[in-house]
Amino acid sequence: MEFSYMTRQKNIERLKNEELDLLVIGGGITGAGVAVQAVASDIKTGLIDMQDFAEGTSSRSTKLVHGGLRYLKTFDVEVVSDTVRERAVVQGIAPHIPRPFPMLLPIYDEPASTFNMFSLKVAMDLYDRLAGVDGTKYANYTINREEVIQREPEINQNRLLGAGVYLDYVNNDSRLVIENIKEANNLGGIIASRIKALSAIYDSNGNIKGVTAADELTGEKFDIRAKLVINTTGPWVDKLFALNKAKSKIPNMRPTKGIHLVVDETRLSVPQPTYFDSGMGDGRMIFVVPREGKTYFGTTDTDYHGDYRHPRVEREDVDYLLKALNKHFPKTEVSLKDIEASWAGLRPLIAGNSSSDYNGGGANTGKVSEKSFLHLTETIGLFNENKATREDVEQAISQLKTARTEADLNPSQVSRGSSLDVGEDRLITLSGGKITDYRKMAAGALELIRKMLKDNFDVESKQIDSKKLQVSGGHFDPTNVEDTLEFYKTITMEKGIPEKRALDLANRFGSNTPRVISYAKKVKTEKTALDLAEQLSLYYSINEEMTLTPVDYLLRRTNHILFHADRIEKIKEPIVEEMAIILKWSDEQKNKMRAELEQVISESKLNYLKKSRQKQLIG
């Protein structure tokens, strides 16, 4: 279904002239989840974002759908249980995006280690029971020191004991957002990117009834009227226009910055995602993930007070990650010059919430007493043998006695919990959370929204089961993913596209693949350096994914800037030229788009840090 620049123009006119039941402000994963569920509930819904969809936090994650094993290091069973169950739901509604990829967790004989081999096995067994994968091909197992070295020859072997292997999922965060957005559009949502909410509009009773907005492309200002407004702007929730915070009841945010670095697999090769203690004594853990011929690693977790719209990777971030990486892979000696791409993002953490943190810690970070620990492990053992109930495990956890607690939280100990608030002015604010929980967060908000529409405006809406609301591209049997994608690959190859490129398209677009290859009749490959697969992807994204700039396409609709640095130089100019033709840009517009793209690529490559380093060496 069309979702293009022209759709955007039509939707702006509708936003100007039609009253909405619900206006969603923020087109990241949270807003996208709310929008698709609202539209499916027959709620007349609009969504705006001041940037491209997912341009902020939702395209800058670790690109995994975590099961939350790290939370078991503080025995936060409820968090893990909720997370693994919700992960399965997300895989069901977007089966072409989250993909199972078992995680390797090496264990060292070190005092600061999160797990030892015994506690890791206990945690993994409980994790599998909670995830419902015990007894399946995804069930956890341990491997000895020798097998770890066989799998990862470059890993640090000093005091290495072995490793655990457990189920986790890789993810394409920005694709998950756009597929939710597209489904909302397909169901009748009124959606436009690059529309900024400037100020709230209130009725005579002081209730919010819309916003004054601005088109970021033209500068035009206009009003959008809505019975209800929900703020889903992530790190911006407490900065959104000039709100009366006392009446709006918005939680204070404490965003933290996380960065990731990308190198070619020839510089660092791992067979599967690997997860280990940072080795810095700070309680953090580091991911190393293979992807598309590259390896990326992260993340940091530091308080952030800069420009929310443009967080950058700084030298201290790079130094920290390189130190942690090279400690665990000492033979690689990865350095700044090896980094091909990077990204930095903000986590929308809520200040003052002291439950489990991003890296699995919490307010209680002290050691567990021996008696309490033994009682807990015995109970878990009985639970795994079906001789104890979940309630027994939870009671054992509640009886844990810790040696100390920390009153002051460092940035890695801020809750990833979510918050749903309604102010006196009826502004709804949905904040916090993490990408795995987006569907569940949206469902909670929809329950409230439906009630408010009924109670305050006598507007009826439909009850839906959002666990079965598949997103665009995901309309196929989630239990038969591999065979389905194999079929889409085959029909794509019939257009003359090589197998690897055909599989790339099938994985990216899922059940929309037939729509993508239908553009074959519109492209002219002899006039461009782009191959047919790239042209089909580009045409589809412009016409059906509201792709407005080369950066939208090369960074968020695809991962080219992040994981295809070796190809980007070849295709970037043909992409600009092709988009200029399709979108009818003037020479001035084309030059502006080209300059923006060059800036983003240069920053992703960390050229500003590499030049600074070079000057220091010369000096």
UniProtKB/TrEMBL annotation:
**Domain (FAD dependent oxidoreductase) ranges:** 21-350
**Required cofactor(s):** FAD
Show the InterPro entries listed in the entry: DAO_C (IPR031656), DAO_C_sf (IPR038299), FAD-dep_OxRdtase (IPR006076), FAD/NAD-bd_sf (IPR036188), G3P_DH_FAD-dep (IPR000447)
Positions of the Alpha-glycerophosphate oxidase C-terminal domain: 466-590
Reaction catalysed? sn-glycerol 3-phosphate + O2 = dihydroxyacetone phosphate + H2O2
GO annotations under biological process? glycerol metabolic process; glycerol-3-phosphate catabolic process
Annotated Gene3D superfamilies: Alpha-glycerophosphate oxidase, cap domain, D-Amino Acid Oxidase, subunit A, domain 2, FAD/NAD(P)-binding domain
Write one Gene Ontology MF term. Answer: glycerol-3-phosphate dehydrogenase (quinone) activity
**Recorded E.C. number(s)?**
1.1.3.21
**Record keywords: Flavoprotein included?**
yes
Q: Which UniProt keywords apply?
A: FAD, Flavoprotein, Glycerol metabolism, Oxidoreductase
Q: Which NCBIfam families match?
A: glycerol3P_ox_1 (NF033461)
The family assignment reads:
Belongs to the FAD-dependent glycerol-3-phosphate dehydrogenase family.
Q: What is this protein called?
A: Alpha-glycerophosphate oxidase
| Species whose genome carries this gene | Liquorilactobacillus uvarum DSM 19971
